[in-house]
Amino acid sequence: MRRVEHVMGFPVSLRVDDEGIGDEVADALFAWLREVDARFSPFRPDSEVCRHDRGELQLRDLSADLTEVLDLCEQYRVATGGAFDVRLPGRPLDPCAVVKGWSVQRAAELLTAAGARRFILNAGGDVVVAGGPWRVGVRHPEHADQLCTVLELTDGAVATSARYERGDHIVDGRTGTPATGLLSISVVAASLTEADATATAAFAMGPEGVDWAAARSGCEVFAVDAERRVRRTQGFPVATAVAA
């Protein structure tokens, strides 16, 4: 089964190779992602996030899901010394950096619960796989038609934070200015929740974020800094056919 839909502002593609996994499973997956977009978007005035940000919903009134997301945001804020912060002065609450990976990981878990054993779920370049090996390309940070590496994953996730899609949109919460020390950073982890939030947090930290991400348990890192130097942890799963 294959399906592609546009959700949360980016294309989400699904491929499931298991027999017996029908369209109803994909329907439930995309329904979940649309629900997340409606509830957690900082751009929809009626979303739970916006209502909380305006003070209409107190902490005690929040759903368990949003409470979990905000708790994760706080964990990463503390872990990065404030570089990762979803509550920047003068800006609305924006937990998207955690919501994306968290929600797509939950979508992958819906597949697993339905009996899927071999699948790949790609949400705007952030990927969850199971039952591989699967090959996943990482876009070159300066050339849209090129890859800077290809990795091989059996079970797990990879997420990339970079400047090429949205410019200098990631802010270092310690300074309030855009993070420009890296061109891109990709993080492999067991879950997309961890991979995506770690990649964004590390990007916000700048070059020091590469070592920070690499030191996190279960994370492997591939990064290109502003001087175009490549840094890669020893365990980053580069596909053997393209390994240097």
Question: Keywords for this structure?
Answer:
244 residues, alpha+beta, eight-stranded antiparallel β-sheet, 12 strands, globular
Describe the structure.
The protein is α+β, with helices and mostly antiparallel strands and 244 residues long. Helices cover 32% and strands 26% of the residues. The protein contains six helices and twelve strands. It has helices at 23-40, 48-53, 64-79, 96-113, 192-205, 208-214; strands spanning 2-7, 10-16, 119-123, 126-130, 134-139, 147-153, 156-162, 171-172, 177-178, 182-189, 220-225, 230-232. Strands 1-2-3-4-7-10-11-12 form an eight-stranded antiparallel beta sheet. Strands 5-6 form a two-stranded antiparallel ribbon. Helix 1 packs antiparallel against helix 4 and helix 5 packs antiparallel against helix 6. The two termini are 34 Å apart. The model has no long low-confidence stretch (mean pLDDT 94).
Q: Please work out how many helical segments DSSP would assign.
A: 6
Helical residue percent band: 25-40%
Biggest β-sheet description: 8 strands, antiparallel
**What order do the helices and strands follow?**
EEHHHHEEEEEEEEHHEE
Mean pLDDT, to the nearest integer, reads 94
Rg computed from alpha carbons, rounded to a whole number of angstroms: 18 Å
Number of strands: 12
Note the beta-strand portion. 25-35%
Q: What form results from the Cα inertia axes?
A: globular
Ends distance: 34 Å
Structural class: alpha+beta
Low-confidence stretches: none
Biggest β-sheet: strands ordered side by side in the sheet: 1-2-3-4-7-10-11-12
